Amino acid sequence: MDSFSDKVVITFHSHYDAVKQKRKLEGCGLKASLVPVPRSLSSSCGTALMMDRADFDASLLIDSIEGAYIFQEDKWSGLQEV
User: Fold this and answer.
1) With contact defined as beta carbons under 8 Å apart, do 21 and 11 qualify?
2) Helix, strand or coil for residue 38?
3) Are 16 and 46 in contact (CB under 8 A)?
4) Each residue of 16-26: pLDDT tens digit?
5) What is the β-pairing status of strands 32-36 and 75-81?
6) For the whole model, what pTM was predicted?
7) 76 near 50, Cβ under 8 Å?
8) What is the pLDDT of residues 30-75, one digit of tens each?
9) Non-local CB neighbours of 8 within 8 Å, separated by 6+ positions
10) Sheet holding 7-12: strands in order across?
11) φ, ψ (nearest 5 deg) of residue 28
């Protein structure tokens, strides 16, 4: 799981919202990838967005996210939960 230490995972209620968020971030020049939701996080749709932690800006999140998480101390911790 060490590979997640510099990443943020954002979960959504629908796949459409994940794609919408990805497009918004890419429109701002940020790189983001659609990934399966890690098993230890719940999600309504099973699709999450992963991006570099250094690029994370909560003001760029769409209203319909489920939560944003970072991996620290061997567990996922919420940065923002809706």
Assistant:
1) no
2) coil
3) no
4) 999 999 999 99
5) unpaired
6) 0.85
7) no
8) 999 999 998 888 757 789 999 999 999 999 999 889 999 998 878 8
9) 50, 51, 52, 53, 56, 68, 69, 70, 79
10) 32-36, 47-52, 7-12, 65-72, 75-81
11) -95, 5
